[in-house]
């Protein structure tokens, strides 16, 4: 049955125009899944990473930093729609501050760094088939963004979702687009090669890639990091940060006991009985920011040696074919994480960076923080933290999880610079300036309420 399912899936990919490297990679993981591989990493097979190199202890020669940033390309993962926040377009089109979206701020960060360092600094987006059109249309307002000889994006591959019980590619006539899924952000390496963009970057003299999520505004171009990475000679490096109680769900690096190799473990790779270890910020004190540095020449060599299959660990993601319909058939999405490349490149390393390198927006809680006065927006597109410790924000998901609900209720973000925590438990609207000090709880009154009119506690 698995041979038949693989043949059907490959035929479907070829019919859709998938390139051969993408088909080879999918086939590799399909065979793993059909043989029963789960990709799970039990706690007793790893040891925590507790003493990584600290960027704060690194000294980088100024000229070496300039030379390195001059040969660096900035790559942003831009395949997500932000469906958990109710979005139906590229998440990076969401306004963050002063009417400027993630895309606008990312462009500002790169253009400002170009001026500072006199570097070409190409900015490339890895789009999915769902985000490409809207993203490219938005970027047309920046005619000076493209670097000669290079595109501004490349397309993430798509693969068939396979039925959990038969491993056949699923058919869903109600919405055929739901028959397809991205192969996880580990696809960035395959997509770079299969699209021809990797060769184009090398032809333009680029040697290093700084890769990060498009919704992380902290991962701006950084010459010191580029110089540090160039000086290591490593093929790959991961940026990590000290974990707090708010980072329990994030993947972490660990040391595999069998060979001493650094590896990445994500939530989906953790056995259920080990989740208490996974979420223990004291046992695993550093989390993976998903900011990566890759030597493009060494990446090219590795892909050539391995026939485009780097061999990243499998992530077997079980979902329903229609994410909005839990009664629809169960499917398996065969995915990989780009951070898992740390275990397939001999000599790969990691560095602990300041928390300012990690400013993601996964929920409206984090969006409210970025819109509040705990961050200042500079002309260079960077958001600078104005307080020593960010306050905890917890908005009632019944009323604030979806972006339209959030926007209709938070028209004027409260001042949070003197707050320790800001908790909203009911249906509150914030329509006028409000200063929050210490710990604030807006309780559920059982009816819509307006801050400044109704009394919190």
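^ Assign residues to that structure.
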């Amino acid at each position: 049955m698995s041979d038949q399912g693989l043949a059907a899936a490959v035929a479907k990919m070829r019919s859709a125009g998938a390139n051969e490297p993408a088909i080879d990679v999918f086939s590799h993981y399909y065979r793993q899944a059909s043989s029963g591989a789960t990709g799970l990493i039990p706690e007793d097979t790893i040891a925590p990473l507790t003493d990584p190199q600290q960027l704060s202890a690194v000294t980088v020669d100024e000229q070496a930093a300039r030379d390195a940033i001059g040969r660096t390309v900035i790559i942003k993962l831009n395949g997500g729609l932000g469906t958990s926040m109710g979005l139906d377009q590229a998440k990076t089109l969401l306004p963050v501050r002063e009417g400027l979206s993630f895309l606008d701020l990312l462009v500002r960060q790169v253009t400002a760094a170009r001026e500072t360092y006199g570097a070409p600094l190409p900015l490339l987006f890895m789009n999915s088939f769902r985000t490409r059109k809207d993203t490219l249309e938005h970027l047309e307002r920046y005619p000076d963004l493209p670097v000669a000889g290079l595109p501004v994006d490349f397309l993430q591959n798509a693969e068939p979702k396979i039925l959990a019980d038969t491993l056949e590619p699923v058919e869903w006539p109600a919405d055929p687009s739901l028959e397809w899924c991205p192969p996880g952000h580990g696809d960035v390496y395959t997509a770079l090669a299969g699209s021809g963009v990797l060769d184009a970057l090398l032809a333009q003299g680029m040697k290093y890639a700084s890769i990060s999520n498009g919704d992380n505004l902290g991962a701006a171009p950084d010459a010191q990091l580029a110089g540090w990475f160039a000086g290591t000679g490593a093929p790959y490096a991961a940026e990590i940060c000290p974990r707090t109680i708010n980072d329990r769900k994030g993947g972490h690096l660990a040391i595999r006991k069998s060979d001493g190799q650094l590896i990445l473990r994500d939530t989906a790779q953790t056995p259920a009985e080990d989740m208490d270890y996974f979420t223990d910020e004291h046992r695993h004190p550093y989390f993976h920011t998903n900011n990566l540095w890759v030597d493009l020449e060494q990446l090219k060599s590795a892909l050539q040696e391995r026939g485009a299959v780097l061999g990243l660990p499998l992530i077997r993601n079980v979902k329903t074919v229609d994410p909005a319909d839990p009664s629809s058939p169960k499917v398996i999405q065969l995915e990989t994480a780009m951070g898992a490349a740390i275990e397939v490149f001999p000599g790969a390393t990691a560095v602990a960076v300041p928390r300012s390198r990690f400013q993601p927006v996964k929920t409206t809680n984090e969006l409210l923080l970025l819109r509040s006065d705990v961050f200042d927006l500079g002309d260079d597109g960077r958001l600078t933290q104005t307080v020593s410790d960010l306050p905890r924000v917890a908005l009632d998901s019944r009323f604030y999880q979806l972006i339209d609900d959030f926007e209709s209720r938070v028209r004027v973000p409260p001042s949070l610079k003197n707050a320790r925590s800001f908790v909203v438990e009911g249906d509150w609207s914030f329509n006028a300036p409000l200063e929050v000090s210490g710990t604030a709880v807006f309780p559920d009154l059982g009816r819509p309420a307006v801050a400044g009119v109704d009394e919190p506690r």
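The radius of gyration is 22 Å.
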